[in-house]
Design a protein that fits this description.
This protein is mostly helical. It has one domain: Four Helix Bundle (Hemerythrin (Met), subunit A). The chain has a two-stranded antiparallel ribbon with strand order 1-2. Helix 5 packs antiparallel against helix 6, helix 5 crosses helix 9 and helix 8 packs across helix 9. The chain is globular. The termini are far apart. The model has no long low-confidence stretch (mean pLDDT 85).
C-alpha cells in the first residue's frame, strides 16, 4: 500500500532573508522611537527601504520569485512603511502636540492613523493590480518613499531641535500629505525598466558616486529634499500637462472663433 504524503514546500532563503531584514529594521524603528531615539528610528526606516528595494531584484536575478515571497514582502512593507512611520511620527510629536492642547493631541494620532490606513490601501491596490499595471509607473506614491519622507522630516527636525508649533504643523502636513499621495492616482516613475546589465555612458556612471557624496554632506537635509522632490514630481507633472492641454484647447478655440468670425 502506497503512502501518500503531501509534498513539503520550502521557501527561498536569500530574498526572504532580505525581506526579514527590512521587517527587522521597521520593528527597530518603532522600538527606538519609543525610547526617544528618533534619529536612529529614521535611519532604520531608510535601511528598511534599501533592503526592500533589494529583495525583489535579488529574487528576479536569482530566479527565486515565489508567491510566498510576494505575500511576505507585502506584509513586511505594511510594518516597515505603514505602521513604523506612523508610530515614529506619533512618538515624535505626541508630547509636543498635547502641550498645544487637547485637540492637537487628537489630531496627531488621527494623522498617524490616516498614514497607516493609506499605506495599507496603497499596498492592497498594488497587489490587486500587479498583473495589469504598467511596470514603468506606480499608481500613487510608493509606501517606501512616503515613509522615507516622514522619516526625513523627523530626522531633520530632531537635528535642528525644532519642536515649536511650526515644526508640529510641518509634521502634520507632511505626514497627511504623504498618506494622501499614496492613495492618489498620480503616476510616479518606478525605475523598473532600468536594466542593470545594460551599458551606459561613462558620464552617467559618475552620477552614482555624486549622489552618495551629496548625501554624505548633510544626510537629513539631502534625503528629505530628494524624497520630497520625488513626492512632488508626479503632482507637478500632472499640473504641467493639464496647463499645456488647457493652453492648446484655448488656442484651438481662438482659431475656431477667428475662422467663424471671418468675412462671409
Amino acid at each position: 500500500m502506497e503512502d501518500h504524503h503531501p509534498t513539503r514546500k520550502g521557501i527561498y532563503i536569500l530574498p526572504n532573508l532580505i525581506t526579514t531584514g527590512a521587517l527587522f529594521a521597521g520593528f527597530a524603528a518603532v522600538v527606538t522611537a519609543m525610547d526617544g531615539n528618533f534619529v536612529t528610528a529614521a535611519i532604520a526606516i531608510y535601511i528598511a527601504g534599501v533592503l526592500d528595494g533589494m529583495d525583489g531584484r535579488v529574487a528576479r536575478m536569482t530566479s527565486t520569485e515565489s508567491e510566498f515571497g510576494k505575500q511576505y514582502d507585502s506584509l513586511a512593507d505594511m510594518v516597515s512603511f505603514g505602521l513604523a512611520p506612523a508610530l515614529v511620527f506619533y512618538s515624535w510629536g505626541a508630547s509636543h502636540l498635547q502641550e498645544l492642547g487637547w485637540l492637537w493631541g487628537k489630531l496627531g494620532w488621527l494623522v498617524a492613523f490616516f498614514f497607516a490606513v493609506a499605506a495599507a490601501m496603497r499596498l492592497a491596490r498594488y497587489n490587486a493590480r500587479a498583473g495589469s499595471a504598467d511596470k514603468r509607473y506606480f499608481e500613487g506614491l510608493p509606501s517606501p518613499s512616503a515613509a522615507a519622507l516622514v522619516a526625513g522630516l523627523i530626522w531633520l527636525s530632531t537635528v535642528l531641535e525644532a519642536s515649536g508649533l511650526l515644526a508640529m504643523l510641518a509634521g502634520l502636513v507632511v505626514t497627511a500629505g504623504a498618506g494622501a499621495l499614496m492613495v492618489s492616482h498620480f503616476a510616479y516613475y518606478s525605475g523598473k525598466d532600468f536594466n542593470l546589465g545594460r551599458r551606459i555612458p561613462f558620464g552617467y556612471a559618475l552620477l552614482i558616486p555624486a549622489i552618495f557624496i551629496l548625501i554624505s554632506l548633510n544626510p537629513p537635509v539631502v534625503l528629505f529634499l530628494l524624497f520630497g522632490s520625488y513626492a512632488l514630481s508626479a503632482p507637478l507633472t500632472a499640473l504641467w500637462r493639464w496647463l499645456r492641454r488647457r493652453r492648446r484647447r484655448q488656442a484651438r478655440e481662438a482659431r475656431d472663433d477667428a475662422a467663424g468670425s471671418g468675412p462671409d
